[in-house]
């Protein structure tokens, strides 16, 4: 006689088989892709790391910009080109703006309050509207004085810690986001709010990675006890949930206490709470403010840190590009002041470096996936309702028609006759998501990255560190594989270009 577990497994197999047989009644083919096994589909060959690289290769193998994969009954649609992505995620946004429900991330770890991961509906619209009201592109200039203050402080910290550039820039980004969101002043080193955010966001990135946890394909597994063999995912979920719960409330509650004590600085939370009127649903609106602030802190810090660390890695690896940037800065800015946002139009090479940083090593090679909410047909292919849509930004940013020699770091590809070339596709249109799910903090992230790039290169030289024998230590160009990709730790030295630079930074730091 079959055991209960065997019967359950057989039942699931039959259910998946029947479900797949009944999905496509249109008679049209699915998009091309690897051959599927019965029941399992492509589970055994789906990559578990650097998926975007494999999917780019499969796109070439099957000569298609759109691929279909199946993970034990879950349809995956990979989009490898700007054209297909625009056609579906932007022109058909009304049916392609859903979010797949991650059992691990949403149910077990508890990130269901994060509007990045919410389904397309009223709850998502309400939170995004609130976020956009405070951080929309036309309003980024309001926040620039505070961003500038943190960038200036970062320069002074680099003077004191020339080999700690990665740590110093991480603290700067955390300081900007937590200040704008909560009005909290961080500690110079090892700030508890920033440490908590880093650990919590790591759990978010891993738990939300499609295909990484079997429980997303078989939700019944979430009921498996933590002590059972093979239930290590339960331990991770418990630990990540504890971090998520603290991340959601601790900074918010500190701002509320500071407001009560009259010691708070202006921030998104303080302004939104002060504007909150007494009403029957005041508590619900207060929760929305809390969750929207958490979204800004989560979404703004990790991605910006990754981009700035890629900038530093590129400057260490390609000193001739750094020298060319400094030549432009010296000509336009000189040595008597630091760059300002108002200088951007006069520094096209700096802007080209920023664009190439976003293109060369995209922060999110796979932006958070979309989900199709009804059956669709595209270019003669049937796309089933419920399909998880994976826009492969990595493949798009390596398209050789747009960007010849894509492996090379070449800011000049964006220039023509010494000016930015509007005929070259803008990388930020692929680096921050697509359609109605585009990152709402995109404008602020770009402005912070630009000022950080201009400021560091104006005052400092980024070089390889030396070992105990005085030999240069090579900085390897290697990255993590996650929802947000970071360069693996590398060594470098960030030293002032001159005594004039030292004096300038110190004098400016005294005013901030």
TrEMBL record:
Pathway the protein contributes to: Secondary metabolite biosynthesis
Cofactor(s) named in the record: heme
GO molecular function terms noted in the UniProt entry: heme binding; iron ion binding; monooxygenase activity; oxidoreductase activity, acting on paired donors, with incorporation or reduction of molecular oxygen
Keywords in alphabetical order: Heme, Iron, Metal-binding, Monooxygenase, Oxidoreductase, Signal
Signal peptide extent: 1-20
Oxidoreductase listed as a keyword: yes
InterPro entries reported for this sequence: Cyt_P450, Cyt_P450_CS, Cyt_P450_E_grp-I, Cyt_P450_sf, Cytochrome_P450_fung
UniProt-annotated binding residues for heme: 439
Domain of life, per lineage: Eukaryota
Family statement: Belongs to the cytochrome P450 family.
Protein name per its UniProtKB record: Cytochrome P450
Organism of this sequence: Pholiota conissans
């Amino acid at each position: 006689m079959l055991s209960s577990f065997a019967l359950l497994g057989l039942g699931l197999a039959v259910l998946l088989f029947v479900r797949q047989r009944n999905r496509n009644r249109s008679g049209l083919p699915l998009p091309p892709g690897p051959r599927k096994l019965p029941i399992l589909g492509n589970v055994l060959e789906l990559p578990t790391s650097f998926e975007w690289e494999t999917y780019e290769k499969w796109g070439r193998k099957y000569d298609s910009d759109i691929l279909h994969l199946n993970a034990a009954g879950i349809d995956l649609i990979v989009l490898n080109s700007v054209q297909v992505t625009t056609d579906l995620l932007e022109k058909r946004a009304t049916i392609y703006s859903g979010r797949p429900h991650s059992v691990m991330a949403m149910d077990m770890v508890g990130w269901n309050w994060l509007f990045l991961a919410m389904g397309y509906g009223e709850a998502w619209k309400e939170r995004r509207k609130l976020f956009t009201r405070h951080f929309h592109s036309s309003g980024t200039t309001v926040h620039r004085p505070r961003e500038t203050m943190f960038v200036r402080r970062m320069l002074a910290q680099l003077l004191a810690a020339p080999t700690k550039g990665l740590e110093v820039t991480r603290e700067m980004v955390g300081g900007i986001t937590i200040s704008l969101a909560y009005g909290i002043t961080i500690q110079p080193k090892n700030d508890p709010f920033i440490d908590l955010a880093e650990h919590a966001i790591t759990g978010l990135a891993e738990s939300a990675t499609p295909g990484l946890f079997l429980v997303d394909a078989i939700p019944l597994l979430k009921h498996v006890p933590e002590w059972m063999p093979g239930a290590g995912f339960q331990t991770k979920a418990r630990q990540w949930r504890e971090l998520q719960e603290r991340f959601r409330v601790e900074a918010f509650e500190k701002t509320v206490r500071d407001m009560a004590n009259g010691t708070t600085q202006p921030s998104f939370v303080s302004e939104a709470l002060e504007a909150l009127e007494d009403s029957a649903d005041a508590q619900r609106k207060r929760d929305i403010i809390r969750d929207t602030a958490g979204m800004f802190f989560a979404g703004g810090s990790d991605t910006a840190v990754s981009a700035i660390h890629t900038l530093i890695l590129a400057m260490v690896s390609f000193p001739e590009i750094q020298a060319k940037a400094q030549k432009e800065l010296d000509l336009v800015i000189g040595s008597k002041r630091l760059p300002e946002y108002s200088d951007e139009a006069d520094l096209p090479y700096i802007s080209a470096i920023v664009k190439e940083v976003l293109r060369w090593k995209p922060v999110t090679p796979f932006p958070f996936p979309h989900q199709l909410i009804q059956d669709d047909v595209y270019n003669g292919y049937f796309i089933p309702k419920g399909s998880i849509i994976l826009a492969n930004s990595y493949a798009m940013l390596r398209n050789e028609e747009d960007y010849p020699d894509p492996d090379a770091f070449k800011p000049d590809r964006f220039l023509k006759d010494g000016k930015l070339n509007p005929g070259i596709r803008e990388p930020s249109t692929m680096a921050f998501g697509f359609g109605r799910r585009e990152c709402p903090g995109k404008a602020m992230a770009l402005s912070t990255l630009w000022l950080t790039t201009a400021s560091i290169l104006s005052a400092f030289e980024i070089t390889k560190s030396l070992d105990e024998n005085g030999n240069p230590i090579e900085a390897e160009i290697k990255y993590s594989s996650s929802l947000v990709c970071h360069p693996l730790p590398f060594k470098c030295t960030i030293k002032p270009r001159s005594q004039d630079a030292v004096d300038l930074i110190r004098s400016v730091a005294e005013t901030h």
